[in-house]
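testing teh design pipeline on a random one, pls ignore if ur not involved
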């Protein structure tokens, strides 16, 4: 029954086992692995060693993410990403984050979805570049025609900025976060290219001749 298909014996690692851009003809559509949904009051995060989704911490504030939140596979925030952020000397050394707007409620995490890039927010966390790419769920019936982040109602971006300025609050810890700079689609695509190049420089040696189709 399955003789013409190939299956993995084990599940692919969400960060290392999947391509960032499934179709090279559409570099604006990336694959997003979702860690947190707008209904989550706990911060979930991919365990980078095992590839499982884990509890990072309960959120201290009542603010919940205003969009689906996750990462773009095979990206890494290293020196090339940091170079695009004049106020940061280094990047955070994590996969590139992505926020995806969907008109329909998606209340499951640990899923993959196609996301069309429209812009980003340059976040600086304790002096480290920690960009947040902003995208629309591909084919979304309400947000599907948005071409650039500046086409969105300003409140959508304000809510993202507020969430990221507060989501790391912890008792007894002073946070130093800046989320002032919002950039459009073209810069977001350049940041993604930089993060893919950083990933290849850091982890490219781990991938052999066999690649995901």
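output:
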């Amino acid at each position: 029954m399955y003789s013409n298909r190939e299956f993995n014996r084990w599940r692919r690692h969400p960060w290392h086992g999947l391509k960032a851009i499934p179709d090279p003809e559409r570099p604006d559509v990336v694959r997003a692995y979702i860690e947190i949904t707008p209904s989550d009051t706990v911060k979930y995060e991919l365990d980078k060693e095992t590839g499982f989704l884990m509890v990072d911490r309960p959120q201290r504030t009542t603010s919940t993410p205003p969009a689906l939140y996750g990462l773009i596979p095979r990206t890494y925030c290293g020196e090339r990403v940091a170079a695009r952020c004049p106020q940061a000397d280094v990047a955070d050394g994590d996969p590139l984050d992505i926020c995806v707007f969907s008109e329909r409620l998606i209340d499951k995490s640990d899923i993959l979805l196609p996301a069309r890039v429209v812009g980003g927010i340059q976040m600086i966390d304790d002096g480290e570049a920690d960009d947040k790419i902003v995208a629309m769920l591909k084919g979304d019936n309400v947000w599907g025609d948005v071409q650039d982040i500046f086409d969105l109602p300003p409140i959508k971006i304000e809510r993202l900025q507020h969430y990221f300025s507060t989501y790391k609050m912890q008792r007894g810890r002073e946070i130093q976060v800046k989320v002032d700079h919002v950039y459009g689609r073209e810069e977001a695509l350049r940041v993604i290219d930089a993060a893919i190049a950083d990933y290849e420089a850091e982890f490219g040696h781990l991938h052999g001749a066999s690649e995901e189709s």
